[in-house]
Write a structure and sequence with these properties.
Number of strands: 11
Bound molecules: zinc ion
Largest sheet: 3 strands, parallel
């Protein structure tokens, strides 16, 4: 019997600000998922959006995760992977899948609501071509023409993700107007290059999964196992985001030791009953997704963290 291949997981934060409790929970769960199965786990710093990302945030992210007790088999700087991203665009261009989108923001709104809460793109510009000199010379956003039809998909936790991404989300942008290569393309290229077999991430990204599977199919890439987990949410609803300025890592580190915060987070998601201080490595042996709660956890920061789950 062939030994089953060693799983490879990843944690892939955008380096657009300080880590917050939701970032740290997502990192912990992705790390535990891989480590509990004897797998490797990669930290990928998603830093292509130079309008929002700063190198200092990347450095800080690495440090904050180490402070919590997480280690990585590799750290990938997404910006250094440009050649692979461009090669994928060459493949899509050669397959006649890329087109220029000339729609304004106003053109895109007011149609069909997408599963992620935004507006679906109606694929209005599908008839347009690339510039004669190739996709690199485009001055307008580029989209990829997905195949029409449903992608049947249920994640490992049983979350139903079947979707017709071309219709329900619309063809995704792969190159922005400012030349930045877009998330739905680079995420699948980078996961494949790192040999990722398990994608563990927050439920807020779940509506993009079908688009990413469609992209993998266009590029001839394997589809990893997906699992989407709970979110930490603000008391008034909505994801507890760094945008809300709630509990940045610098303030958490001034208040707690790494093992104290790790214990609190483990307790908040159901991995321990007493939320006593511990290190991530202490959670590996008994880790099981059946112990992780599935509902979102209301999180409050007022000098101390409290969780109401
Ligand atoms: Zn368009």
């Amino acid at each position: 019997m062939e030994p089953s291949p060693r799983p490879v997981g990843r944690f892939a934060p955008s380096t657009t600000g300080e880590a917050h409790p939701g970032t740290l929970v997502a990192a912990l769960l992705a790390w535990l998922d891989a480590r509990a199965a004897g797998g490797r786990v990669v930290l990928r710093l998603e830093n292509l959006d130079h309008t929002r990302c700063r190198p200092a945030w990347a450095t800080q992210m690495i440090d904050d995760l180490a402070w919590l007790g997480l280690d990585w088999d590799a750290i990938v700087d997404q910006e250094a992977r440009r050649a692979d991203h461009e090669a994928a665009l060459d493949v899509l261009a050669a397959a006649d899948r890329l087109y220029r989108c000339t729609c304004s923001r106003r053109d895109r709104s007011g149609g069909r609501r997408a599963p992620d809460g935004g507006w679906a793109y109606a694929n209005t510009c599908r008839g347009r071509t690339l510039p004669a000199a190739g996709w690199r010379t485009a001055t307008e956003p580029l989209r990829v023409r997905l195949d029409d039809g449903p992608i049947a998909l249920v994640d490992e936790g049983g979350l139903e993700l079947t979707q017709d991404p071309a219709l329900e989300m619309g063809d995704p942008i792969v190159v922005r107007r400012d030349g930045v290569l877009a998330y739905q393309l680079v995420v699948v290229v980078d996961d494949d290059a790192a040999g990722v077999t398990r994608v563990v991430r927050g439920r807020d990204i779940a509506p993009s999964t079908a688009t990413q599977v469609a992209m993998q199919q266009l590029l001839g890439l394997p589809t990893p196992v997906y699992r989407h987990h709970l979110l930490l949410v603000a008391p008034r609803g909505g994801k507890l985001a760094k945008l809300h300025g709630s509990a940045p890592a610098s303030e958490l580190r001034a208040r707690y030791r790494g093992d104290e915060l790790c214990g609190l987070l483990a307790g908040a998601v159901g991995l321990t009953e007493d939320a006593a201080p511990l290190r991530p490595a202490d959670l590996v042996r008994d880790f099981s997704w059946s112990r992780v709660i599935t509902r979102d956890v209301v999180t409050t920061w007022a000098g101390s963290l409290t969780f109401d789950s």
